[in-house]
Amino acid sequence: MPSATQVKDYLLSLQQNIVATLENLDGHSFRLDQWQREEGGGGISRLVEEGGVIERGGVNFSHVLGKTLPPSATAHRPELAGRAWEAMGVSLVIHPRNPYVPTVHMNVRLFRAYAEGHDDVFWFGGGMDLTPYYGFEEDAVHFHQTCFEAVQRFGAKYYPEFKAWCDRYFFLKHRNEPRGIGGLFFDDLSELGFEGGFAFIKAVGDAFLDAYVPILERRREYQYGERERDWQAYRRGRYVEFNLVWDRGTLFGLQSGGRTESILMSMPPIVKWRYDWHAPAGSPEARLHTDFLIGKDWLGKAGVA
């Protein structure tokens, strides 16, 4: 049976593999920033800014420990309040410069809570999701097809359940709109056991480059101007709003005394807000809302193994 040490080894290798691939595509090296956490543990942050393709992107590994679970971690599990905890994972966000290349997020993690006199409680979580600024059906289908293929061997239910969970989770309730076109999201996954849960996050983590790199390569040379960059900056504002208002990972990191620079590396470098503004009807920008940010079943076969 695999151990937490094996999970950690996998996560470190996943980070290295993704960074090496993105460095090759971008042409710039990622900064290496190793850090320690006073309460326990630490991490390795890998970041690039003003790269050849990536305007700002980070691929972070963390393994942190704490004496008491913060409120964000026990909101859905009040019986765990007061327990010590351990969390490890890889989390990444890539914000490309070209507005025709979508932003992407991926995260895989293991969480363990423990207390004397009680059995350890563990669960796995993670997923990946795509946030385009201009919609391409080919890209949406490819991303979701890769997600589907990554998890179908675990059972027919997982893609449709976790696709629907992703659509619900990455949703800006205060604006009544999705952040992007989704993908997979899951948390509290323990029903597969430790070995099965570990295999599941490996399948998701290993599928990331297959899901995203072909899209990046397909769109990176598209020509764009001030209009497209302006729209990108406006839509990036939605990304910031979600991460600061709704994202459980951001809240957990800040509430648990996490490293602020690493937690907020997900923020895009250039963002704009406008008061009560909407894209002109019938424009490519408006089509993002009407045709893509709609929680669509991109495969037309959700749940078919």
TrEMBL record:
UniProt pathway: Porphyrin-containing compound metabolism; protoporphyrin-IX biosynthesis; protoporphyrinogen-IX from coproporphyrinogen-III (O2 route): step 1/1
Site positions for Important for dimerization: H174
Keyword Cytoplasm tagged: yes
Catalysis performed (reactions): coproporphyrinogen III + O2 + 2 H(+) = protoporphyrinogen IX + 2 CO2 + 2 H2O
Presence of the UniProt keyword Transferase in the record: no
Alphabetized GO MF terms: coproporphyrinogen oxidase activity; metal ion binding; protein homodimerization activity
Cofactor(s), by name: a divalent metal cation
Record's protein name: Oxygen-dependent coproporphyrinogen-III oxidase
Protein source organism: Amantichitinum ursilacus
